[in-house]
């Protein structure tokens, strides 16, 4: 798998070459990968902001622990989850589903009702965290796509979300900055690129639960006529 080699290549880049910019073609491929990312029910309850404007990034840097990636990277990506899933979000999703699948919305009434019930079962806090989890799924896809294109990325939680909400006008849109990523190209001076990747071993990380347990249990039972 090329994916494995690409993931071995990537790391959380801290020092970007500010003179290098991501091409429009590569940026479109990244956007398409994120668009196709897995999402519960397919709802995609988030928006993704791609910020290139330097003056805006200068405003965001102080509320991002003054990390240089914010301004030195080619682009800053902000994943913004909706603070709650409204009826209009579900209705828009059903309308889109009917359009893409060439079906009438009446055929999807049961699914619309199902989604509304599932969302109503969640408290306001649960909805906030649930939509944020969906944004993180999209972030994972973005990181893999960047690795394939040999574009460096640094996923970041080190920022003041409420300040981002204020600066970017997110609150009035029912959005919340959940996680961000700086994208671009590593500087030759970034020492981290030469460090071996630290990850748990496969044996330590995974535990396999297979049919052998059932076989062992059945093996100890007496034969039946």
UniProtKB/TrEMBL annotation:
Gene Ontology molecular-function annotations: oxidoreductase activity
Presence of keyword Cell membrane: no
Organism annotation: Prolixibacter bellariivorans
Gene3D superfamilies, alphabetized: NADH Oxidase (3.40.109.10)
Annotated family: Belongs to the nitroreductase family.
CDD domains linked: NfsB-like
Pfam families, per database record: Nitroreductase
Name of the protein described by the UniProt record: NAD(P)H-dependent oxidoreductase
InterPro entries cross-referenced by the UniProt entry: NfsB-like, Nitroreductase, Nitroreductase-like
Cofactor(s) the record lists: FMN
PANTHER family: NAD(P)H NITROREDUCTASE YDGI-RELATED, NITROREDUCTASE
Domain Nitroreductase: start-end pairs: 7-185
Keywords: Flavoprotein, FMN, NADP, Oxidoreductase
Keyword hit for Transmembrane: no
């Amino acid at each position: 798998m090329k994916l494995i080699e690409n993931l071995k290549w990537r790391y959380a880049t801290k020092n970007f070459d500010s003179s290098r910019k991501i091409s429009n073609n590569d940026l479109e491929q990244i956007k398409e990968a994120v668009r196709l990312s897995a999402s519960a029910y397919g709802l995609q309850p988030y928006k993704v902001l791609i910020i290139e404007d330097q003056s805006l990034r200068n405003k965001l840097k102080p509320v991002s622990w003054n990390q240089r990636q914010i301004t030195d990277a080619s682009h800053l990506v902000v994943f913004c989850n909706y603070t709650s899933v409204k009826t209009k979000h579900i209705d828009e999703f059903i309308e889109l589903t009917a359009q893409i699948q060439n079906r009438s919305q009446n055929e999807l009434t049961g699914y619309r009702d199902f989604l509304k019930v599932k969302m109503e079962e969640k408290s306001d806090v649960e909805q906030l965290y649930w939509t944020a989890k969906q944004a993180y799924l999209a972030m994972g896809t973005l990181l893999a796509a960047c690795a394939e294109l040999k574009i460096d990325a640094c996923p970041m939680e080190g920022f003041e979300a409420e300040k981002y909400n204020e600066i970017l006008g997110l609150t009035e849109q029912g959005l919340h900055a959940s996680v961000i990523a700086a994208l671009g190209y590593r500087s030759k001076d970034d020492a981290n690129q030469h460090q071996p990747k630290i990850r748990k071993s496969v044996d330590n990380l995974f535990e396999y639960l297979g049919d052998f347990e059932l076989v062992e249990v059945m093996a100890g039972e007496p034969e039946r006529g």
